[in-house]
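sanity check this chain:
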Amino acid sequence: MNKLTQLELLARLHTLPDTASLTTQEAAVFLRCSASKLEALRGNGAGPIYSQGGAAGCRGVNQPCLYEKADLLAWLRSQKVSSVKEATVRKGQV
């Protein structure tokens, strides 16, 4: 996806209500990261909360993940830091 298309999609995503459900690709554009980065965050439990379809005992591992826009905004707010030092401590680099 080229930059212009991403910016157009980002503008459209911001106009959606906070209750809108976004796919992994849409959520990645909204968070300005790659889908693979969002999938990695989901895999290690460090990313935003999400919903995944499929009833108990459902076969297959490819059930779609959906992110509510309000949850993405809440996760973004929880990631705020006031200094580089705070960011490195949060990441466990100090």
Observations:
- Residues 3-90 form a domain with the Multidrug-efflux Transporter Regulator; Chain: A; Domain 2 fold (CATH 1.10.1660).
- The chain is about 50% helix and 10% strand.
